[in-house]
Fold this sequence. Notes:
The chain is α/β, with parallel strands linked by helices. Helices cover 59% and strands 9% of the residues. The strands form 2 sheets. The chain has a 5-stranded parallel β-sheet, sandwiched between helices. Strands 6-7 form a two-stranded parallel sheet. α10 runs antiparallel to α11 (212-222), α12 (227-243) crosses α14 and α12 runs antiparallel to α15 (274-293).
Amino acid sequence: MKTLKTRLKEGLSNCYIMSGDDYELYLRAFNMIYNRAQLNLPDFNMVKFDDENYTMIGVINACEVLPMGDNYRVILMKNIEKISENDKKMLNSYLDNPSPTSILIIFDFYGKLGSVKNAQLVDCNKFDRATLTNVVAREIEKKGKQISGEGLEKLIDYCGGSLTRIMSEIDKLVYYDLDEQLITASLIEKMVVRDDEVIIYELTDALGQKNGDKALKCLEKLKKEGIFGLISNHFRRLFFIAISDLPDGELANLLSVKEYAIKKQRMQVKNFSIKQLKKIYSLLEEVDYMIKSGAMLQDNALSYLILSILYI
């Protein structure tokens, strides 16, 4: 985002492709570009495409229309899930000689257009911890409140480092008690629901430290449909991290996760030996079979899994 801000000071490009896992950053990047374009007549010079009206030829035709009463025309192509190879060829061909008065902005949430040339790529992955801490503190200050250091850490952790989720929680926290200026850690615990992945991270820590009480408390929060898959994927990644010599970036690509997730899980690997993780990997296969075959109910299977890992 800082890079985008610097580039915009130098001028506008004809195409921006945004990709990453934090949707709030897409919206912020779009607003930065849109404000720089300074449209006075958005009804004539702002066009949006989504799954309802998308065709690549339609997008390109919109880009080739001259602006009316403004210097630029902004075309937004938003989260198109199905993009063909022919669509990519058409887009590349257009970008070889784009209209100088059109700005094409693409929200590539599904990662379909990474190979497109002659476009500025905008990284909308989650902020690093330090940047996110500063951004969240500023957002709360804008609303006339402050947040304690512990509360800020908890808010970020509970929302899995996602600015999208954090922004959805801030209003709730700010307006909960209008007479209280400070948002505390206890208010975060009371008002914010933790992401499943955060609880699984805490569960894994508890298991690695052989803290049975904490592990069972985490399990109670996780007992719902589909949670076995999240736990299973988490431990499988720990196993692959433990046995792999690949750098974090390559391992993240191999396992189809973000590099941030690999870095965070690598800190947990030290709580388990490779032999333990291999046994847990086999245990996951056994429990998965018992659930799918009907030999054990999912709630019972999860309890069996957690207690078994505690004593591996």
